[in-house]
Amino acid sequence: METSPIPVVTVQTAPFEDQRPGTNGLRRKTAVFEGKKNYLQNYIQSVLSSIDLRDRQGCTMVVGSDGRYFSRAAIEVIVQMAAANGIGRLVIGHNGLLSTPAVSCIIRKIKAIGGIILTASHNPGGPGGDFGIKFNVANGGPSPDTVMERIYQVSRTLEEYAICPDLRIDLSRLGRQEFDLENKFKPFRVEIVDSVEVYLQLLRNIFDFNAIKSLLTGPDQLKIHIDAMNGVMGPYVRRILCDELGAPANSAVNCVPLEDFGGRPPEPNLTYAVSLVDAMKGGDFGFGAAFDADGDRYMILGENGFFVNPADSVAIMAANLSTIPYFRQHGVKGFARSMATSTALDRYNFVDFLSPPGSDHIREKDGLWSVLMWLSIMAARKQGVDQIVREHWAKFGRNYFCRFDYEGLDPRAAFYLMRDLEAVISDKAFTSQKFAVGDHIYSVEKADNFEYIDPVDGTVARNQGLRIIFTDASRLVFRMSGSGGGMGATIRIYAETFERDPERHSRETQVVLGPLIAIALKISNIHERTGRRGPNIIT
């Protein structure tokens, strides 16, 4: 019996004024997306309409999520709206799950026009948590400012959206599902794919899996402890580290993706990954790692809980790329880091870009790639984490680096604080300022609101953060983040100083950076202006 074509329906709506995406897409409290009529539909329509109609018709898009609450319901709406708006094919992860690096990988592999990722990164999940929608473009990377502005402008004037409300898909069934739509010549196709396979194939082409497997299973077996924090990375950790590379099954914990991440924020740091920290301090494991909800952020620990600052991690990986077959064969084109990231990476004789970090295998930060990189270095050098880090410091010097996060701030108070601080550091007299803290004297060399000009297409990303650089190369960076969901604004303060003397490489980070932090608090008045006594998180 023939089934009737699925109707395409046009629904009248009204615009929302608060749908301007940030660097991490649009993040709000889950209740906003779930409970505010047409809020989700309006934003999805704005994303789809931002793509030129000629490019959109019949194109392929990728869809995935970190598994947080409301993801399945949102994916169903995205599928219904993609079909109604002329998208020809959607590639979706099994059960709706795809890590952000995997989405980036698949976009490039199948030459998709882009991908929609449902994630609020390290923010809490569950009905009372946060939800986010991120659009990655055809190169696999996050939307540039021009695309985000286009999405926002569409959202401001939106009067209707198109949807196929009767279209239903089964996210649990691998394979192709086809649907005939009214007034469409070609069927709409949905492909449910293994969440891990394409990404795993890519990693096999980059790393020496045999070398890593020998490290994890050989006579001098390295015992590892990996915490997926009940986010999307569980299936990847199980499949790649355990099944492929031979790590015992009990090496991986919290590998079942949960809608509320087990009731804790999926943030891989010393504050929230405390069970990993405690396990590593016991001395039974030589390597530990944790991942955030969507798999782009990570934390590395060595034996006895030795903490690897993310700034050191990327610099050490850069210094040891010769251990990786892919880079031995293809060489290195250059390194990229975000402006706020430590300048430790700048100490190599390579092209250095101030931009979103990642490898040329994808256009996103990648936690599991970084873990495999560390295991490759350990296999090649036959050293533990702390020894590798200390030898790196001895050779290149140590960048002491920390970040203070003030979360849940009143958005207006945060905005005016940043506006007034920019006025202070933009004053010509500020560049001749000297700050005395104890026996330290810091002289300002440069201060600005950083903007990035893409060397490829010339696009400009403005207002990337306020930075103050001192004559001894120490620096402070202030950024207001859009990652706070509906929980208010977040201001992050970064402090960094460089130490060449090996005799001074084992000092406490907070002690070393105390004078810089004191300057930051003084010139920003953040405690007085926000009513806070200190940051929520120090990393």
Automatic annotation (TrEMBL):
GO biological process, one term: myofibril assembly
Stretches assigned to the Alpha-D-phosphohexomutase alpha/beta/alpha domain: 19-160, 199-305, 360-396
GO cellular component entries: adherens junction; cell-substrate junction; cytosol; sarcolemma
Keyword list, A-Z: Magnesium, Metal-binding, Phosphoprotein
One Pfam family cited in the UniProt record for this chain: PGM_PMM_III
InterPro entries: A-D-PHexomutase_a/b/a-I, A-D-PHexomutase_a/b/a-I/II/III, A-D-PHexomutase_a/b/a-II, A-D-PHexomutase_a/b/a-III, A-D-PHexomutase_C_sf, A-D-PHexomutase_CS, Alpha-D-phosphohexomutase_SF, PGM
MF annotations from Gene Ontology: magnesium ion binding; phosphoglucomutase activity
Entry's family note: Belongs to the phosphohexose mutase family.
The name this protein goes by in its record: Phosphoglucomutase 5
Native source species: Anabas testudineus (Climbing perch)
